Amino acid sequence: MSSVSYTNKGSRAALALAGLLLVAINLRPALTSVSPVLKNIAEGLSLSPAAQGVLTTLPVICLGLAAPLAPKMSRRIGPERTIFIILILLAVTLLVRPFSGMLGLFVFTALAGACIGIMNVLLPGIVKRDFPTRVSLMTGLYTVALNLGASMAAGATEPLRQAFGHQWAPSLAFWLVPAVIAALIWIPQLRVTHTVRVRPRDGHSLYRNGLAWQVTLFMGLQSSLAYTVFGWLPTILQDRGVAPVTAGLALSVSILCQVITAIVAPLIGGRMKDQRAVLISVMLLTLCGLAGCLYAPIQSVWLWVVILGLGQGGTFSMALTLLALRAPDADTAAELSGMAQGFGYVLAAFGPLLVGLLHDWSGGWDVVGILLGLIGLSAMIVALGAGRDRLVRQHDTT
């Protein structure tokens, strides 16, 4: 009897992990599928550089604005049902978005960002709850899945556009397929019940906690660089003479390289007394990669996109890992996740927006590099606080 129970428990854990990874795959294609065909969208809908900046910014703003909805929906219907409903909504949104004109493109891009924002908040709490002794490993694994989804969309959207008769709309709509698959695989999770423990309020809000704000700012600043790369790297490279397919492939390779540090950085950081050295190291890699893509001879672009990917894989996975490492329990981790991703992604949205505005104003990319350098420097300063070996609620632990 015990062996049967063990097998059933193992099967449930394997199914839960598979569902978790498939959900994670859908957290970026709605965003990274746009930039490889952004020039085509702009030509088809007569979008100015500033409007293109708004298009790349909208979903990131909605990532943050929708984050507070996640715990409310989770408390009402449970995290499993919430994720299932949001996956279905995301699939419908991706189907309708490219065929609804200029207004629909902006509206449904924003809605796609909101869907992703809700799932973003719920996944760290599920990891903390279901895999409490393997938080760093599981965070790394689902970050890898997230990067794979982002990389596939970045690399395949332009070839899909060419395969669909040089039409960008069906190439964007294609990315509803992973959402449908994830929803189908997630169905067994709807039958799993968990005991919900509500931590009594103690009057110590995270919004009055300095460490919580440092974690939030690091999440926002590194995300600002990430979404700038997602939204603008292919356009930057095309303006420097790279062919559209190659520019999309460069973004795909950069994201794929994130897989390495997405696993390695949390494993190293989780074993260290504090994470400041790891955070500074991966941010320096990110800044070096960005500088190379902007200013180095274009023949060396593949070196710089690899360095960029290694840096950003580490910054993002470490930002997620901090949500667990700085929280004393799963409830606080979920609360910190909502705060960091809510405020953090709203802050992150200003990155791609300012890039569009600066490019429109200057007519080039040199000034953009200064902005990105300032963002990276700010992230390193914040990391010196967020990486300390402390908990956001010291008084909750014994």
Automatic annotation (TrEMBL):
Q: Where is the Major facilitator superfamily (MFS) profile domain?
A: 208-398
Gene3D superfamilies linked: MFS general substrate transporter like domains
Which cellular component terms (GO) are annotated to the entry?
Answer: membrane
* Transmembrane intervals: 50-70, 82-99, 105-123, 135-156, 168-190, 211-233, 245-265, 277-298, 304-324, 336-355, 367-386
Q: What's a single GO MF annotation on this record?
A: transmembrane transporter activity
Give the matching InterPro entries: CynX-like, MFS, MFS_Cyanate_Porter, MFS_dom, MFS_trans_sf
CDD domains assigned? MFS_NIMT_CynX_like
**Keywords per UniProt:** Membrane, Transmembrane, Transmembrane helix
User: Which PROSITE patterns does UniProt cross-reference here?
Assistant: MFS
Q: Which NCBIfam families does the UniProt record give?
A: CynX
Show the PANTHER family listed in the entry: 2-NITROIMIDAZOLE TRANSPORTER, PTHR23523
Q: What is this protein called?
A: Cyanate transporter
Provenance organism: Kushneria konosiri
